[in-house]
Design a protein that fits this description.
Layout: H1 2-5, H2 9-35, H3 42-84, E1 88-90, E2 93-95, H4 97-114, H5 118-133, H6 136-144, E3 153-163, H7 167-180, E4 185-192, E5 197-204, H8 211-222, E6 227-237
Antiparallel strand pairs: 1-2, 3-5, 3-6, 4-5
Length: 238
């Protein structure tokens, strides 16, 4: 019978408003993600926003503002597990960080809507959308700008994956190929890569190296007998 006593039309209308706002605002964020065919699209962002709104609204009703504040803290930490699920690592490149951050923003929008801060939820939505749209041309322009090697250290690493029995031959071929290009590794490591293969990791000295030259280098390495795969990856530190 407690469930019937808890029915309050005014409170239900407030909950309906909070969930509706979370649905609409989460949908706006999700539409932009869905349009760009990201991992977390329309439905995911809407569900995150609604879920956060429902948790905060329930806590707000049961324990007042103090309860809502405590639940918000759990939402902030809990959404990290969901965000981690959309982050992928492929051959040294990390993908999905922006999608994970967008989910975090959707949770914030939902939590704000659940706390009956409708205007604040709308402002948060506008800023999330602005970060994903208005900043995109700036990011693309910076990405196309040549790296200023005076202010950043560039480290290029060449990877060679070879059959376990071809370790010495692959290592000798790599050192010979690097020597012909006058590239000197500052660190050279060999470790197991599965049950039947090894990976040779040659970290080159910090210098400005032509990407096309490294592309040609790994292309030649990939053609050597016993070499299963060859590629290179840059990394920078300020």
């Amino acid at each position: 019978m407690t469930a019937f006593h808890n029915i309050n039309l005014a409170s239900l209308l407030d909950t309906l408003l909070s969930l509706s706002v979370a649905f609409v605002l989460g949908g706006l964020i999700g539409l932009e993600r869905q349009y760009r065919q990201r991992t977390a699209g329309l439905r995911t962002n809407v569900l995150v926003a609604i879920g956060a709104a429902a948790f905060v609204d329930t806590a707000n009703r049961l324990n007042g503002h103090d309860g809502a504040v405590h639940v918000m803290a759990y939402v902030v930490s809990g959404i990290g597990f969901l965000g981690a699920g959309v982050i992928m690592r492929e051959e040294g490149n990390v993908r999905g960080l922006n999608t994970a951050a967008t989910l975090w923003g959707s949770a914030a929008v939902g939590a704000t809507a659940g706390a009956d801060l409708i205007v604040e939820a709308t402002l948060a939505t506008l800023f999330v959308l602005a970060a994903n749209t208005l900043l995109r041309p700036i990011v693309n322009a910076i990405a196309r700008t040549p790296l200023d090697v005076a202010s950043a250290e560039v480290t290029n690493t060449v990877y060679v994956i070879a059959a376990h029995g071809q370790q010495k031959a692959a290592l000798a071929q790599l050192e010979e190929a690097l020597g012909r290009e006058n590239l000197h590794p500052r660190d050279l490591r060999v470790h197991a890569f599965g049950p039947e293969e090894i990976e040779i990791e040659a970290t080159l000295a910090a210098t400005s190296v032509d990407g096309e030259a490294l592309d040609a280098l790994v292309g030649r390495l990939a053609g050597f007998p016993g070499v299963r795969q060859a590629f290179w990856s840059p990394s920078t530190s300020d």
